[in-house]
Design goal:
Elements (H helix, E strand, L loop, with lengths): L1 H26 L1 H5 L5 E7 L9 H5 L2 E7 L19 E2 L14 E2 L18 E6 L15 E8 L12 E14 L39 E6 L1 H13 L1 E6 L12 E2 L5
Antiparallel strand pairs: 1-2, 3-4, 5-8, 6-7, 6-9, 7-8, 7-10
Length: 263
């Protein structure tokens, strides 16, 4: 019986010594990593940190490790700076990623503006002002194929009494968009940390709505460079009218018609 107790005590002592050795090994890992080199303490992300997180919240999601100084890029944070508390993280941090001072700014970078239209590579987008009737009672939509008619000039020529003439200016043109672009929506403020959470949780915000008046009395067409000049000239000195093209119709440019030739 006594012999069995001695064996158990010996096993317990061996376990204690082994545990102490493991703890000592772990604590010395960082120092061994820089053995023979100059080491520096740096801040890294303890977990993934999303963009727009405030500096004061980032601080609670970091830890310090010892690394060789030669591997540390310029601008790496070696300790937390309280001046970063009110700044915003402008790019997400992955777990174990170094914290760089340049990642914290007063505002988030502006996103590239989104466009409502895609202009064909060999075309130009030209916008003209039209009321509802010349837009086929307002039923013209993006993607439609239209014929653009022009009545020039708007008033008779007083020198030779020539009446205005209407003719097909552009036999076929593609409608890119109808109406003007709405005013840009201001960037929403980043969501704060949710109290009691271990990681940032963005608060839901209402869907932003465009501001300003939306004017549908404009039409943007895709035209080639030569027709762009003609369309702009006609929009200044002539009256324009759109006609929706049927599936099998073909419009042939010609001399057009004036009031003398109507009947």
């Amino acid at each position: 019986m006594r012999r069995r107790v001695l064996i158990l005590l010996a096993a317990l002592l061996l376990a204690i010594v082994s545990g102490a050795a493991i703890i000592s090994y772990v604590r010395g890992a960082d120092k061994r990593a820089v053995e023979g080199k100059q080491g520096v303490w740096v801040l890294i992300a303890r977990e993934r940190i999303p963009v727009a997180t405030r500096g004061s919240d980032v601080k609670n999601l970091t830890e310090r490790i010892l690394v060789p100084s030669e591997t540390v890029p310029e601008g790496t944070l070696t300790a937390w700076d309280s001046a970063l508390d009110e700044l915003l993280l402008v790019a997400p941090l992955e777990k174990t990623q170094l914290l760089l001072r340049t990642l914290f700014q007063t505002t988030l970078p502006s996103a590239a503006p989104s466009r409502r239209m895609t202009v064909p590579s060999d075309m130009l987008a030209v916008t003209v002002a039209l009321s509802v009737a010349p837009q086929v009672a307002g039923d013209v939509a993006a993607g439609d194929q239209v014929t653009v008619y022009g009545t020039c000039p708007l008033q008779p020529d007083s020198t030779n009494n020539d009446p205005p003439r209407t003719a097909a200016l552009l036999p076929r043109a593609q409608v890119l968009v109808i109406g003007e672009a709405p005013e840009p929506v201001p960037t929403t403020a980043p969501a704060p940390m949710v109290s009691g959470s271990a990681s940032p949780q963005p608060e839901k915000s209402p869907t932003p709505t465009p501001t300003g008046k939306y004017d549908r009395y404009t039409v943007t067409l895709a035209v080639d460079p030569k027709d762009a000049q003609r369309l702009i000239q006609a929009s200044k000195y002539c009256g324009l009218y759109l006609a929706l093209l049927g599936a099998q119709v073909t419009v042939t440019p010609g001399d057009g018609v004036d009031t003398k030739g109507l009947f």
